[in-house]
Design goal:
The protein is an alpha/beta fold and 258 residues long. It has helices at 67-74, 78-84, 99-111, 126-132, 148-155, 160-172, 190-203, 218-223, 242-250, and strands at residues 5-14, 22-27, 48-52, 57-61, 63-65, 87-92, 115-120, 138-142, 176-182, 207-212, 254-257. Helices cover 33% and strands 24% of the residues. The strands form 2 sheets. It has a 9-stranded mixed β-sheet with strand order 5-1-2-6-7-8-9-10-11. Helix 7 packs parallel to helix 9. The radius of gyration is 18 Å and the shape is globular.
Length: 258
Amino acid sequence: MKDKGLIFNIQKFSIHDGPGIRSVVFFKGCPLKCFWCANPESQLKKPEEMWDNSLKRPTTVGKYMSVEEIMEEVLKDVMFYEESGGGVTLSGGEVLYQVDFAIELLKALQLRGIHTCVETTGVCNPKKFQEFIKHVDMIYMDYKHYDSQAHLRGTGGRNEIVKQNIQYAINHHQNVVIRIPIIPSFNDSLEDAQHFADDFHEMGISKIELLPFHQYGENKYKFLNRDYVLKDIPQLHTEDLNEHKKIMEKNGIACLVR
């Protein structure tokens, strides 16, 4: 829909998606289809029905909103941003899947002096990505796998553009955090950790975050009538990644486990 973005949630009072208290605007639609995705309702770039267990009926996930409509909603909490050093985070799905609309929203936020943050897979035309990050104060970027074929098997897309955009962000932006979601049977071995560390050295990345696999989104697959291949896999905890963290630090990479 022209001049509108497809949004599936605006989450208030978030403290885990950037500094301070934040509102998180979740964009619907993603070019990847990661088999562990915790927000499967975010993948399709169209509104869809999903069972709402609290209402005991199906509801529509995804609504077209203008920049003005989103701004009206997030500005209700501007005093909390100011007092906490917070702001607005764009997430998804994949925000870069609607990159032109996202840029217009970021410009509007910046005009109001609101700190902007994004969480992204980095899958985007490089020229558009370079324009996009000019309007972002802080960037969280996923690096899901160092091997392009494994990345393709696990996400449905290769990693060459991801690496190119991460490299550009590292070279041209002062506040970039690289995150690895650690997924059983995909990228969780200590050998994988060393391969990641080698790539980070090559790319000039000196700090990262590890995100242990969790099962927070498991019920969503049932509510969407979709199969979930990891439903019987135990989730990971911070202590499960201690050895991965040591490998990173041994290679001179500051590592935080979330």
